TrEMBL record:
Domain of life: Bacteria
SUPFAM superfamilies: Acyl-CoA N-acyltransferases (Nat)
Any Pfam family matching the protein: Acetyltransf_1
Molecular function, one GO term: acyltransferase activity, transferring groups other than amino-acyl groups
Protein name: N-acetyltransferase domain-containing protein
Domain (N-acetyltransferase) ranges: 39-201
Source organism (scientific name): [Clostridium] ultunense Esp
CDD domains: NAT_SF
Matches recorded under Gene3D superfamilies: 3.40.630.30
């Protein structure tokens, strides 16, 4: 038992160490120090909907794939209210990601879905001006660590099949495809998605 606990701890720390090395190699030590522990999640009230739209507007390629057009305030409100079948609105979190007073991203996640051991990420998006600078990776590393502390064992998400950049990002973060399906959110839009998942090792 003790040997297994030590093995899990070493694997977890090695995974985090490799992630830190990748940020340092790509962006330098200064960037790592700048982005570490700087993120704040803000509840999106009506007066912040435009801030979300500004982030959406910098991710035009994604919206060409998902809606064959440009996002609007209406599409922000739709995302804010969308829920997969069987989920609980009380577990829905649609948040702005803020750093040093600037809104740099958006995350939509549902706790205890599809079961009590899992967290489901419905949307994760970083402002296009901050792409390829390590912010997305750093945020998700922190998010996973936080969910681990809360006792969750899996992070699950869906990636549109045509979204190559999104798939590559999540694959680099250690997520694996577990199945392919038509999205249960707006099935009339016939979105083909790859369901990806990452196990979280709980420290004992």
């Amino acid at each position: 038992m003790l040997t297994e606990m030590i093995k899990e701890y070493v694997e977890e720390e090695l995974e985090r160490y490799i992630s830190v090395l990748e940020i340092v190699n790509d962006y330098g030590v200064g960037k790592l120090k700048y982005i570490e522990n700087k993120f704040i999640l803000k509840t999106i009230t009506e007066d912040l909907l435009k801030n979300v739209l500004n982030i959406y507007d910098t991710n035009g390629e994604y919206f060409k794939i998902s809606m064959n057009g440009k996002p609007s305030i209406e599409s922000v409100i739709e995302d804010k209210n969308d829920m997969p079948p069987g989920s609980n609105l009380l577990n829905k979190n649609y948040k702005l990601i803020s750093m040093n007073g600037q809104d740099i991203g958006i995350i939509d996640y549902i706790m205890n879905y599809p079961d009590e051991d899992a967290v489901y990420i419905g949307l994760f998006m970083i402002n296009g001006d901050f792409h390829r600078q390590g912010y997305g990776r750093a945020f998700i590393e922190g998010f996973i660590a936080n969910m681990r502390e809360k006792g969750y064992r899996r992070i699950r998400l869906g990636v549109l099949k045509q979204n190559k950049n999104g798939f590559e990002f999540w694959a680099r973060m250690g997520f694996k495809v577990v199945k392919e399906m038509i999205s249960t959110i707006h099935p009339e839009r016939n979105w083909e998605i790859m369901v990806m998942e990452k196990a979280i090792k709980i420290r004992k």
